[in-house]
Amino acid sequence: MNPAPITTSVFDLFKVGPGPSSSHTIGPMKAAFDFRQRLAQLSDDELQRTDAIHIQLYGSLSATGKGHGTDRAIVAGLLGWQPETSDPDELLRLLKDPTVTYPVQVRDRVFCVRPEHIYFNRKRYESPYANTMVLQLTGAQGVITEEEYYSIGGGFILRKGEPAESETSRSINLPYPYSSMNELKAQLKQNKLELAELMLANEMAVTGQSRKEINQRIDDSLEFMHKAVRRGLRHKGVLPGSIKLHRKAPVLYKQARGLAQSSDSFLIFLNAYCLAASEENAAGGIVVTAPTSGASGVIPGLTYLAKHHFHYDKTTLRNGMLAAAAVGFLVKHNASISGAEMGCMGEIGTASAMGAAFLTYAAGHKIDAVESAAEIGIEHHLGMTCDPIGGYVQIPCIERNAMGAVKAYNAFLLATSGTPSFQKISLDSVIKVMKATGRDMSTKYKETSEAGLALSATEC
């Protein structure tokens, strides 16, 4: 049986929402919102026998959930907030005062949620995914109803009992189905298509939207990304959290402008743009997952550079974004973009590969060069651990966004400096290696803050 074709939407990969973590913030908020919707479907008799909502967190959601704001995100979702419309300042105010209760209304019943209703469980929980949350509605007789959710990276969630994308994708009639880079290249060759045209046609089938609507949404996603960059270039001071990390982006940007004629200014500008978006994410601001919030500085930084330094027009930027999405889809479909599953190679490694694909395709190169650039981007992130200090998406996460973008640019240069067909390792092969590496990696190095750089927290 052939693998199911990829039916993820571009706008599921590039989601708008509050930082600092798509797995720990956007995903849990969406799960809590879904749970709220399901409670509204209970009978009056069932609701009358209930008295409280309890949230059980496991895996990385438990280990680093406090630093990532998982508890705030869950409360927000239960209150009916959605990631794309949340006010980041209001979100940061949730749970500031432990004495405040939050009323969750389900028809004529009101359940008061407080911090003590959220449990950060450190015991092992048998689950198919590292980030698991169980939401329960309880009464005098115990649990009346519960739902188990998995946050699988990039703000994507699954509910226990629901089919995964791979099990439902066959029902969508894609004009150009593919599940690997080899299949994608075969579709392009057979149908004499450019990559952007194929991606647009599939996106229209997945979303039911027109070409014009999709192009506008891509423009909107880019604008959200670039707003994050611009905010980050302006905002100074210290980021939220116990680390007391000072923002660097405004200083770097000022330095780059002062060195405009220097050969170093290009790199300093790129670093400033990536740090700006990533620092906004760390502060809980509105960002775009690309493919995750933890990696939401790479693509924004590169696209901002392409727009303001290369002067690419809207069409070129859109086409580059579609090429980036193609690579992100392949990693998500055949490995994972979750730091809790793959370590940081799943987040920054994927973002770097997507960024390399963006640069290569936007510069006018064909699919072989795009594949080569993406492969190089992943290859040189293999085995990268996810070990945030204090559970915050700050150290080493923010600088890794800048480093991932620099690697993406170098991957673009390497892939386009020779003959792409001479590349010995295919993108499909390196994604398989990535998946195997993630499976072999100790859980201590996968977003739990139990090893690596996270252990230097006492020195900060």
From TrEMBL:
Pathway: Carbohydrate biosynthesis; gluconeogenesis. It holds the Pfam family SDH_beta. Keywords: 4Fe-4S, Gluconeogenesis, Iron, Iron-sulfur, Lyase, Metal-binding. Its EC number is 4.3.1.17. Residues 9-161 form the Serine dehydratase beta chain domain. Residues 191-454 form the Serine dehydratase-like alpha subunit domain. The keyword Metal-binding applies. InterPro entries: ASB_dom_sf, Fe-S_L-Ser, Fe-S_L-Ser_mono, Ser_deHydtase-like_asu, Ser_deHydtase_bsu. Its cofactor is [4Fe-4S] cluster. It is an enzyme of class 4 (lyase). It catalyses: L-serine = pyruvate + NH4(+). The keyword Transferase does not apply. Belongs to the iron-sulfur dependent L-serine dehydratase family. This is L-serine dehydratase. It comes from Nibrella saemangeumensis. The lineage of its organism: Bacteria, Pseudomonadati, Bacteroidota, Cytophagia, Cytophagales.
